[in-house]
Amino acid sequence: MSDLQFKAYRLHGGANGAPPQGRFDTLSVDELSAGDTVIKVAYAGLNYKDALAQAGRGNIVRAYPRIGGIDLSGTVVRSADPALTPGQPVVVHGFGIGVDCDGGYAELARVPHEWVLPLPAGISLRDAAVLGAAGYTAALSLHWMEHCGLTPDQGDVLVTGATGGVAGIAIDILSQRGYRVCAMSGKPGAEDYLRSLGAAEVIAPPDLSAPIKPLMSARWAGVIDSVGGSLLAHALASLRPDGVAAAFGNAGGAELPTTVIPFILRGVKLLGINANSPMPLRRALWQKLAGEYRPSRLDLIARVIEPQDLPQALAALLERSSTGRSVVRFS
């Protein structure tokens, strides 16, 4: 097994501070990061963090060479854990794969067995990759929002950055559960796509050049936000009493120019979403993704590409010229 040769898309550190260089290398299993479980990769998702890593931005990867890809689906080749049997379909995301250790952009991956989650029945390897870290983040957001009391009869839910992978899956799940979803996007021509995912309304981002008032017209029962910055502050000021926002991104900036007023006068709640959850919560939410949170429009969200298209697709993701969720097929 250690002599088995396979292809991997690996980032190599640039000289004198230059961006890393990505190329396809032929490797053996022994050249992978440490782990006791070998997986034959079927699909791996393209995520914004992967795009940042390829461009050498955000200090994502600190040690090279590194195989990117922060999530993957595939089948077990061998494992030290007897509960993981050869051929078993599994998914892996988080735990630093593709960043601190080798990830999913390869025909084989090696990780500790504690990071491997057997796929619930009814989720294919392709759909598991389309969901991946993005789908898990969407499910985790809604899970905690509903834990805080959000229900469909309380009013509209706003989804920002709506053409992104997490947002698209969130729109799909929310609409399946009976929520009225308003999708916010600045991309021209996105309305038909977003309505096809289940959005009842599509709006452009607000003008954020003027100072944001501590409280604005109360419109949203809930907000799922991938943007952060001033847009999140605007959304918080627009939440209804006892409304809840889930925040997991900072594409619009890491600063949050808000006040305590929405929290103390309207009782709104701001939930920070960290998808690197403990394994028991992961298992529970993947079961939800196979059941009550199951999206029905993944075919509209998904785009399957081949390994040779990976560098260009990651560059497009960084430029925000893509929509939905792309996955690369390795087997």
UniProtKB/TrEMBL annotation:
Gene3D superfamilies: Medium-chain alcohol dehydrogenases, catalytic domain (3.90.180.10), NAD(P)-binding Rossmann-like Domain (3.40.50.720)
Signal peptide: none
EC number: 1.6.5.-
Domain of life: Bacteria
Domain Enoyl reductase (ER): start-end pairs: 22-328
Keywords linked to the UniProt accession: Oxidoreductase
GO MF: acryloyl-CoA reductase (NADPH) activity
Broad enzyme group: oxidoreductase
PANTHER family (UniProt xref): ACRYLYL-COA REDUCTASE ACUI-RELATED, SHORT-CHAIN DEHYDROGENASE/REDUCTASE
NCBIfam families named in the record: oxido_YhdH
Name under which the protein is recorded: Quinone oxidoreductase YhfP
Source organism of the structure: Achromobacter kerstersii
Gene field: yhfP
